[in-house]
Amino acid sequence: MSEDRSPSFLDLDASRLDQADAAVVPIPWESTVSYGTGTAHGPRAVLTAGPHLETFDEELEVDLRDLLRLATLNPLGPERGERPPAYLPRLRDSVAALGLAPPFPIFLGGEHSITAAVLAGLRPSHEDLTVVHIDAHADLRDEYEGSPHNHACALRRVLDLGIRRLISVGIRSCEAEEFAMARTDERIETHYAHDLQEPALFDQLLKDLRTLEGPIYLSVDIDGLDCTLCPATGTPQPGGLGWYEVLAILRATIRESAAELVGADIVEVVPMAGSQVNEMVAAKLAFKILAYRFAPRENRPASLPLRLDRGPAAAVSPHQIGDREGP
Ligand SMILES: [Mn+2]
Fold this sequence. Notes:
The protein has 327 residues and is an alpha/beta fold. The chain has helices at 42-49, 64-67, 84-98, 114-122, 154-160, 176-184, 193-196, 199-210, 243-255, 277-294, 318-323, and strands spanning 22-27, 56-57, 62-63, 70-72, 104-109, 130-134, 165-171, 188-192, 215-221, 260-267. Helix 3 packs parallel to helix 4 (114-122), helix 4 (114-122) packs parallel to helix 5 and helix 8 (199-210) runs parallel beside helix 9 (243-255). Manganese (II) ion binds next to loops.
């Protein structure tokens, strides 16, 4: 099957990139995956899942159709047999040549090593940039299996760009050296998955995210989510963030803070035969990122994150319940 033309994500396409508010950029890159394979097929699977989503968001009470024009670009994949030292700089230059941010880009991977290349192409300077990173893995290795471009080095390469701050969330797999680096490097703040099981610590994370300012880039390795939400991903880890925990994190970061989300990626998505879970979770994640980024803020006061006051149960008094006899 040709990967040259992409199915369009949702049915909101702008015919030209310069008329779009947002752009979906497929990056079918797979080279250094160390365990399960198939992430090169992730972007196309996510794009194919997209039209099966409703464009209305019942949480924000908005229709994306009314909010933004979205361009789905052709894939920025490797040439046949192209290796990381050739491909990743070319990816950086291809992203730079597109002239993004604006339009707001969502990059669909592909393996996590695309993130540093994409960020290098997206912005000339990174010293004011905060990266919010959802992942099972710290990805702070300087080299893995002989390559500094391995997906296990993804965030180390992002730090090499000179970003201001890295906030990693959902981490539950790292080696001792990565753990030590996360603790000693003042740019890195790590929220381990086991800590986030404690409600008070999860609430504190949301409070901290709401204080973010300045430009933010979001990098979501799909394996940061609970592995039931991404069963085919190449290096799954038990545990992880539930769907509504991820949404709370995205809402706090994108919608309830004063920060400006300048771009996002969703990586390590792998489709599998007989199930649409992997790509549908990733597609809905892209949808929610767009909804949080583009919906007017007054639709959703930050003080009512769950809007429990509006549920039907709240309107039913104990007296009314008592009045309701069986037939
Ligand atoms: Mn990972």
